[in-house]
Design goal:
By secondary structure, the protein is of the alpha+beta class. It is 14% helix and 33% strand. It contains 10 helices and 30 strands. The strands form 6 sheets. Strands 1, 25, 26, 27, 28, 29 and 30 form a 7-stranded mixed beta sheet that branches. The longest helix is centred in the middle third of the chain and has 14 residues. It is globular.
């Protein structure tokens, strides 16, 4: 699977807390806009979960119903540079936690002298006709993805789309009448609910563990742009990534994605992407080939006790507006710096992260009421949400087998703003676009391109914005690209040759 040249407006760095697994990238892949597919998102079973006290004597009936819908996902990636160990600095242990000894760079198998790296994860059958939910980090960069069902059948899967911002990916196999796992309303999950985690830890075969929901709405755990994790103490181990977290009725409530661990093994803190988010992402990827998110145009921050006192607030709930972007939906609606957003689109805003999630889930063009507190008085404004800049033209299927006429595959760039200048220590006079990510093993990486580089020219033509850079690399007639790059106080030329990339 080949990433296309990508553009983003900003990059949130992945964070590791106390050994936390950070498996995130903030990237948007660009290609020609794909055709919309006919797709009906899986139905949601909104019936409440029985919560009367009294335990199950056995979960065997639940497991029998759900287990056939949880699959093994294994990937193969050709190594372009045999000297590369498969992971950036500091990522070796992280990958081992999820993929065990099958982690990229660990004992790569060789066929006919071509080094390969292997990966193992899990997936959940979402529809009877073969759409499967898994994690982006399970299939990211893979040349081949295969799926093994519980009944022994194996299929080669097609990557329909990936969303690094939530770590969700959708793959599809050519099969019918598959045992799809029913979905619940994950917004109704409560702390203390019994859950089961099903997956393929360490590649030993399907395994079921049980526990409870330890927390909901967890953010800042692994460094994704959009986090609203369900936390559980059900054992999640390497290979469980992309597997199912189900309730006591056997309904899918989350996609297992990460663990917090100092040892690399399960220590009772695991995270799952709520199925409400995964389902929305799948619906967008299949229908539109991209994930469309709402945009408000405000800089926001949480309210701490000091701000609570200065702004004469009643508590620390809500999101404080520190700045409003000119000509944004927020400015047009009348939002001002110093406003405290209390509710958005009928939902209570607890903090800035929660507001970001709710805005992102709002469809562009949709109007939403925003309840604010301004100078001690509450009022409600009406805002028409726009599309988040930088999310257009997300590649539906970035497989290397697609007809791709672009160049600089595997490179992510962003417009230079205050945040990027601070993050990469860029002088104010430097113009161009900043490289935020370079896919390992790509021709761009082999040519020496790296995060923090500023691309000033593409094929001797000045580049000013990320969107302009994308346009300059689309439908290229020559697979050799000449870049003028600023780095470490000076400019140099870099040649990226993709003529031998299949």
């Amino acid at each position: 699977m080949k990433n296309l040249f990508r553009a983003v407006n900003k990059r949130v760095a992945a964070v590791a807390l106390g050994g936390a697994v950070a498996l995130a990238g903030s990237a948007v892949a660009f290609s020609q806009k794909p055709k919309t597919e006919q797709f009906n998102a899986p139905a949601v079973d909104e019936s409440p979960l029985p919560r009367e006290v009294g335990g199950h004597t056995s979960f065997a009936p639940v497991v029998k119903k759900v287990a056939p819908g949880v699959v093994k996902v294994f990937t193969t990636t050709k190594l372009h540079n045999t000297a590369f160990n498969g992971a950036p600095d500091g990522m070796d242990d992280l990958l081992r936690r999820f993929f065990g000894d099958q982690a990229p760079g660990h004992n790569p198998r060789r066929e006919f002298g071509v080094p390969r790296q292997q990966g193992i994860g899990s997936g959940v059958i979402a529809t009877k006709d073969g759409y499967i939910l898994t994690n982006n980090h399970v299939v990211d960069g893979a040349d081949e993805v295969k799926v093994a069902l519980q009944d022994g059948r194996e299929f080669t899967a097609k990557v329909i789309g990936r969303d690094p911002k939530t770590d969700v990916a959708v793959i599809k196999i050519d099969a019918k009448d598959l045992p799809a796992v029913p979905m619940a309303d994950s917004d109704k999950v409560e702390v203390g609910d019994v859950v089961l985690a099903i997956g393929n830890p360490f590649g030993i075969g399907q395994t079921v563990t049980t526990g409870i929901v330890s927390a909901t709405g967890r953010g800042g755990a692994v460094g994704l742009d959009y986090e609203d994790f369900i936390q559980t103490d059900a054992a999640i181990n390497p290979g469980n990534s992309g597997g199912a977290l189900v309730d006591a009725e056997g309904r899918l409530i989350g996609i297992n994605t990460a663990i917090l661990s100092r040892s690399g093994g399960n220590q009772g803190i695991g995270f799952a992407i709520p199925v409400s988010i995964a389902r929305d992402v799948m619906d967008s990827l299949v229908k539109d080939g991209r994930v469309t998110r709402g945009y408000l145009g405000v800089m926001i921050q949480d309210v701490n006790p000091s701000l609570e006192k200065e702004f004469k607030l009643k508590d620390t709930q809500g999101a404080l507006v520190s700045d409003v972007t000119p000509k944004s939906p927020a400015e047009k609606a009348g939002l001002k710096s110093g406003d405290l957003i209390l509710d958005f689109n009928g939902k209570k805003v607890t903090d800035s992260r929660h507001l970001k999630l709710e805005v992102a889930r709002t469809h562009p063009g949709e109007s939403a009421p925003v309840k604010i507190l301004r100078d001690g008085e509450s009022k409600t404004l009406e805002v028409t949400v726009k599309e988040l800049p930088g999310t257009e033209q997300l590649a539906k299927n970035d497989s290397k087998h697609q007809d791709d006429t672009g160049t600089l595959n595997g490179v992510t760039v962003a417009d230079i703003d205050g945040n990027s200048r601070q993050q990469f220590d860029l002088p104010g006079a430097i113009k161009g676009v900043v490289v935020t990510e370079v896919e390992p093993n790509s021709p761009s990486a082999e040519a020496g391109l790296r995060p923090g580089d500023v691309i000033q020219e593409i094929n001797r033509k000045p580049v000013k914005t990320a969107e302009e850079a994308v346009q300059m690399t689309e439908k290229a007639t020559d697979k050799t690209t000449l870049l003028r790059v600023w780095r470490d106080g000076g400019s140099r030329y870099v040649v990226v040759d993709e003529s031998n990339v299949g």
